[in-house]
Design a protein that fits this description.
About 40% of the residues lie in helices and about 15% in strands. The protein is of the alpha/beta class. The chain has a seven-stranded mixed sheet with strand order 2-8-7-6-5-3-4, sandwiched between helices. Strands 9-10-12 form a three-stranded antiparallel sheet, with helices on one face. It has a two-stranded parallel ribbon with strand order 1-11. Helix 7 links the parallel strand 5 and strand 6. Bound molecules: pyridoxal-5'-phosphate.
């Protein structure tokens, strides 16, 4: 059975064009610097972020944690949003790998107040850790996009205090599509950025960590330390290049499809959708007022060929992507109406 899979955009299989490019990719041992396809991907990734260099990593988590590990010394303090992915969904890695302390900033739907950040930057004092890094997340995993104004305020304060800024841009291109700007308009407010090619861009594996040459050279060595020195990875880079050249142009469709899905869901009695929070390809809603059993909801949709995740923190999340069309959305809506009417 061909499922309609709304669990995440990480479920996207590579396209036929990617598979063909992977099959034909020219490769070499990338730890020796011999893989021309990987070099091409890294150069292109740096270029579209308007930075000097880039490094392929196995996953988004790997890229974020490598950024912390490279920017910071052990015992440094990292300032980041209380609801960000690095804190909430990366298995506590920052305490294991970089050995840093995370200090949270209040999140206003994903945006941090630059004044609060300034207050939390450490002075020199024998009792204090040093503030080693500030992290932002855009698009945010709550489905919203930070404004460029918010990013620029935070970046300027960081620069005044000589602190580097890392951007978790797992869905950077969805954010760029929402803001209707090129990705470099977002990445100019950070010193390093991680983005995923393995999510809505359909590549099977990988993320890129991007920054200046010195930072990427250090990160390359630490990537090896973490076991992420890959050999003939041009096979993966071939798909990544198509992800960045072709697929970034179409993620706005996913954003639009999420809006449509949200709008149609909101018309179903008892379903509550935060329509104004649908900036990218994610729809959060709850079905409390329908009175329908939540586990049964997952099971019934499964029977209709639709895979969804169980509720988390009071919300069900649907994610649109390359393999979800408008036709699928109408079928999803019809299926939900049918399930709830029983
Ligand atoms: C998915 C995601 C990551 C991590 O990516 P993985 O490849 O799943 O490790 C990091 N940050 C954000 C905001 C994400 O959505």
């Amino acid at each position: 059975m061909n499922f309609i899979d709304l669990r995440s955009d990480t479920v996207t299989n590579p396209t036929d064009k990617m598979r063909e490019a992977m099959f034909k990719a020219e490769v070499g041992d990338d730890v020796y610097g011999d893989d021309p396809t990987m070099k091409a991907l890294e150069e292109y990734a740096a270029k579209i972020c308007d930075k000097e260099a880039a490094l392929f990593v196995p996953s988004g988590t790997f890229g974020n944690q490598l950024a912390l590990f490279t920017h910071c010394n052990r015992g440094n303090e990292v300032l980041l949003g209380e609801d960000c992915h690095i804190l909430m969904h990366e298995v506590g890695a920052s305490s294991v790998i970089a050995g840093v302390q995370l200090r949270t900033i209040k999140s206003h739907k994903g945006e941090m107040d630059s004044k609060e950040i300034e207050l939390k930057i450490r002075e020199e004092n024998i009792h204090f850790p040093e503030t080693g890094l500030i992290c932002m997340e855009n698009a945010h995993s709550n489905g919203r996009v930070l404004s460029l104004e918010n990013m620029s305020k935070i970046y300027n304060i960081a620069k005044e205090h000589n602190i580097p800024v890392h951007l978790d841009g797992a869905r950077l291109f969805n954010a760029a599509a929402y803001l209707n700007v090129e990705s470099k308009e977002i990445t100019k407010y950070c010193d390093s950025v991680m983005f995923c090619v393995s999510k809505g861009l359909c590549a099977p594996i990988g993320s890129l960590l991007v920054g200046n040459k010195d930072f990427i050279n250090k990160a390359r060595k630490k990537r090896k330390l973490m076991g992420g020195g890959l050999r003939q990875c041009g096979i993966l880079a071939a798909a990544g290049i198509i992800a960045l050249k072709d697929m970034t142009k179409r993620v706005k469709e996913d954003n639009e499809n999420a809006k449509l899905l949200g709008k149609e869901l909101s018309k179903i009695p008892g379903i509550k959708v935060n329509l104004e929070d649908i900036h990218i390809n994610m729809v959060f809603f709850n079905i409390d007022e329908t009175g329908y059993d939540k586990l049964k909801f997952v099971e019934e949709l499964y029977k209709k060929g639709i895979k969804i995740n169980a509720e988390e923190d009071g919300f069900i999340r649907f994610v649109t992507h390359y393999w979800i069309s408008k036709k699928h959305i109408l079928y999803i809506i019809e299926s939900i109406k049918e399930i709830l009417s029983k």
